[in-house]
Design brief:
about 140 residues, mainly alpha
Length: about 140
């Protein structure tokens, strides 16, 4: 993911919202937005419903109610306050970026990492491709 850049507000649309939604999915996957036993919130069921709503909103890249509620839970659980109402301002964006960096979720364009990908390329099932040249990409 790219760094989260504030402000991002409910009902917004676009690539910044998509990036935020990817970050929220990452936080859910890493259990950084936690569930609690009832009567506390969010429960496991609450998070499952919000994850589905987030996926639906992601297809339209809209900062809808699911995205907003997940941001609110993130803000509360990270002790950023309860008065932000799901808006991603500088403090929230900073905390999100800190956690994304800490957990390896940020994409950096000036990375010096080298990756190796190996496998077999088939033209048709069972038919190899002689002469394919191996290439290193950075």
């Amino acid at each position: 993911m790219q760094p989260i850049i504030a402000p991002i507000v409910p009902n917004a649309k676009g690539k910044e919202v998509q990036n935020l939604q990817n970050a929220l999915s990452f936080f859910l996957d890493k259990n950084m937005i936690r569930s609690f036993d009832p009567p506390n919130q969010p429960t496991t069921d609450d998070l499952l419903k919000l994850r589905k709503l987030l996926q639906a909103e992601s297809t339209e890249t809209v900062f809808g109610t699911g995205t907003t509620q997940l941001v609110v839970y993130f803000q509360l659980q990270q002790k950023l306050g309860d008065n932000l109402k799901g808006m991603v301002e500088e403090t929230t964006a900073g905390k999100m970026n800190e956690l994304l960096k800490q957990w390896g979720g940020l994409y950096t364009t000036n990375s010096n990492r080298t990756y190796t990908v190996s496998g077999t390329i088939d033209k048709k099932k069972g038919s190899g491709m002689p002469g394919v040249i191996e290439e290193t990409m950075k």
